[in-house]
Amino acid sequence: MMDLINQHFIQVIATVLVLIATPVIRHLTKTVLRKYAVMKGKTENRTGQVVRLFAVIVNSLAVIILIVIWGVDPHNLLVAISSVFAVIGVALFAQWSMLSNITAGIIIFFTTPFKIGDSIRIVDKDIPFDAKVEDILAFHTHLRTKEGELVTYPNSLFFQKGVMILRIDTWNEETDE
């Protein structure tokens, strides 16, 4: 056993460092994202979704680093990765809109074009409507129309349609009439 450890001493030390650094980096990322969310007035639900996504990214990078440290044969690694990406590619092709909605949800989180409680107008030539933002989730946003209907609006459509933020008094005047 000691002979094996001596033979791979550098890899063992590097692996231990990666295994220690990964949770530390995840914690730092979580702390920074939560401070950003508090500063920008984001909901805990939205913040939790983005924190989980970044944790997956950090964990994936740690696995890649461990693969490099242990010198996995590039040919075998390439075969495994291409097989995984083939399966993922088929799944994403079938669900490409899901990925675009998640990406749009992350962009909305960081750019804050509107926030929960804002009254907005979706500028669509076919079906324009006014609504109040109730919740912003990873895939979609809940909007409440003046008639009280709950609309589940895909996040990716916010980047395909015009969105106007309405003044509060405009929303109230129109709903009072």
Structural features, described:
Residues 98-161 form the Mechanosensitive ion channel MscS domain. This is Mechanosensitive ion channel. This protein has 177 residues and is an alpha+beta fold. It has two domains: 2-94; 113-176, SH3 type barrels. It is built from six helices and five strands. The chain has helices at residues 2-7, 9-40, 44-69, 74-94, 96-111, 168-176, and strands spanning 119-123, 129-136, 140-145, 150-154, 162-166. The protein has a five-stranded antiparallel sheet. Strand 1 (119-123) and strand 2 (129-136) form a beta hairpin.
Task: State the gist of this model.
The protein has six helices and five strands, in the order H-H-H-H-H-E-E-E-E-E-H. With 177 residues, the chain is an alpha+beta fold. The chain has two domains: 93 residues; 64 residues, Roll (SH3 type barrels), CATH 2.30.30.60.
